[in-house]
Structures are given as C-alpha cells and as structure tokens.
Amino acid sequence: MSTPKKLIAAAALALPLVIALAGCAGSGTDSAAGTSDSAAEQKTVRIGVVNSGDPYWETFTEAAADEGIDVELVNFTEYTQPNPALSAGELDLNQFQHVIYLATYNVNSDDDLQPIGSTAIYPLGLYSSQYDSVKDIPEGATVAVPNDESNQARGLLVLQSAGLIELEDGGSPFSTVADVLPDSKVKVEALDASFTATSLPDVAAAIVNNDFLEDADLTADDAIAQDDPSDPAAIPYINIFAAKAEDADNPTYLKLVEIYQNTQAVLDGVVEASGGTAVLVKTPVDDLVASLTDVEDDIRANS
C-alpha cells in the first residue's frame, strides 16, 4: 500500500498537466467574501488555479462579473501551492485538483478543506489494437495497466467497471494488481505508464494515460472503456472547487460554482483546453464530501 507522501505525488500526476507560467499570489486577503450593505464594497473572490492561461477562465471571470461578482485568478506553477494558500486565507477558493488529491493534502496537513462543487473528470481510458469492444476481449487474455500507485488503482477500477475483472472488497483508490480476484475474466499485468501504449500489439488491451495518447497515435475517442462518472468508484477522480470548511456554504462561492457549471462558453472552453478529454459533471456536493471522507479514512488506515 502507498504512503500518503507517495500518494500525493502520484495523485498530482493524475491531474490535467496544463500549467501556465504566471505570477503567484500577492499579499493575503480576508478569505470571507460575504455580502456587504453596498455592492461597491463586495470583496473580490480570489481563486487559485494552475492554468489561468486557458481562455475559458477569462470567459468565466466575465460571466461572474455579469452577475456582480469580481473574480481574481491567482495562478500557481506547482500543485503543492494552492491548498496551503487557501488554508492560510490568501485565497477564497481553488480549482485545480480532484478529490483524492484534496484528501491526501488534508490528511498530510491535518487540514479540513472541503469540496463545494464539481467541474469535470478527465477519464483514464482502455485501448486496444486488436478488439473494437470490451465484450470481444477473450477470457484469459492479458490487459496492461500503469504500475504507478495512483493510476494503477484507477486503471483497475476502469477494468472492473468494464466487467473485465473483480477486485477484492470492490476495489478502492489503493487497489493493486494483487487485489484482482482469481476468477476475473482477464489477467492483469502492471507496466511503466510510458510502456502501456507500446504494449498494445502484445496484449489484448491497455490502460493508457492521456499524456501518452498523442505519441501512440491514439485519441480519447479510440478508448473502448474509460471512467464512468456515474460510477461511485470514479467520484474520487472528479475535479472540484475547494473552500475552507467554514466557507463551504458561502452563497457567493456557491454562485460561482453555478456560473461555472451552467455557462456553456465556459464548459466548451474546458473541453477544448483538455483536447476533448474532459467529461463535464455536476456531482452532488454531498457525494463529493462523502467520497472525500472515505478516501481520507483509507489514507489514514494505510499509513
């Protein structure tokens, strides 16, 4: 099992790797963006991101302004920075991570940041050069998954969702090849993530990270299976807006989530920036919070 320190590094790799080099946060501001008697006194909402250069963020800030909310994007160049900045009150929100990454940060830092809205999941796909459908993969065939801890577990969950394997205790973000039950339809082999695509001529199918699709002349449309956002097992991989626990019900922050989720130009921009891989989701916040708690408990149990 992985340690929290190892998992946080692996989890970062599972995030969309689009990092714009821009200035980091300036001096801290009060994290509360509550309403005031005068609209002119409305505090600016500072949101930490790692990809502020993507055009959809400008669209989002303009849509927020149309609703009377002033948004300032604070760009970071490392995934390790936005959560501590949020905790310290230098930010009001951040949007750059999935639930597993937040859970790992909370446990390692003894913090309690909370998800207040979903954005998208960036699916991990199963590809094959021999079969057009999961149903065509024969019993006893070999399927490859990445051997890094975060993506191996996620890949195994994809295989389970596709009906190719069964995992001990239903699987978790900590599952390994050793957890594949012996009566599963296929055998599973763990390979370096950079080799799963090149293994396709030799295996029935392989989980291929998005980072390696282009080099393998693959696109997300070629996947024969991928994360199902409606599957509870995929919830830990959903990207989120995060806030301090005391701000989880802040109406201005929740309005910003609503603007993000319901502005078509923003959603189109998210998909375009991801190269077409992003799957937009509106997962209930209660489900996100429950998933966060479950993953935190798993991390503590496996520390």
From TrEMBL:
Extent of the signal sequence: 1-22
Membrane topology label: Lipid-anchor
Keywords per UniProt: Lipoprotein, Membrane, Palmitate, Signal
UniProt entry tagged with the keyword Membrane: yes
Tagged with keyword Cytoplasm: no
Lineage: superkingdom: Bacteria
Family under the similarity heading: Belongs to the NlpA lipoprotein family.
Protein name: Methionine ABC transporter substrate-binding protein
